[in-house]
Amino acid sequence: MIDDIHCMIDDIPCMIDDIYYMIDDIHCMVYAIYYMIDEIHCMINDNHCTIYDSPCRIDDNKCTKDDKQCTIEDIHCMIDNIHCMIDDIRCMIDDIYCMIDDIHCIIDDIHCRINDINCMIDDIHCMIDDIYCIIDDIHCMIDDIHCMMDNVHCTLDDIHCMKDNVHCMIDDIPCMIDDIYYMIDEIHCMINDNHSSIYDSHCRIDDNKYINNYIQCMIDAIHCRIDDKKCTKDDNQCTIEDIHCMIDNIHCMIDDIHCTIDDINCMIDDIHFIIDDIHCM
What we know:
Four Helix Bundle (Hemerythrin (Met), subunit A), 94% helix
């Protein structure tokens, strides 16, 4: 389109030169018409002089009459030629007006094409702005992916910590069971000691009370350990459920990452389409 505009602009000086050439031709034709009118006047004057010539030229009157007739015919021919030249001048003037109209049309076409180019440039700027917006969206999505990956890593770390805690709790269970058996053995020993000391002297009544209190404390400790075992089992169950929930969350995050990557690929395709449109324009 820009090359067409340059060609049109290059054609305008040539057309203006043609107009000047035609104007020069009109001037030449006008000078020729003036020259022919002068010739006609001269012929008419010569004819009048011939008519009023001296009587001694009576013999020549016949020839002069013929010459007069020829001169009149020549004048008519010249007048016809003048009319033809005037018609030619009018045609040339019409051609000049047509060429001037053509120049105006070319100038209007140039303005229209320039406006089209400006519109296309505006469209290109809009497309470039769209590309920048898409690139910004891609950067935001990439940041979201990094955040999701960080969250996945954090969740995996939490899962590993929970697994370690579960393993620690599971490892603690045999120790707790051993403590319970040990306490039961201690209770049996104390009961046996208590039976053997029933028949002891009254001075050991305070010791029996102490031993009974100690046995009660041991029984309470056993109940506490049994409760701790139940709590540990419940905690293990809750921890396992939390781990399953975290694993589900990780799968959801991974699905979100895949979706985001698909969106990025779609946006990249949009960018390629826009760039192709710009190249086409």
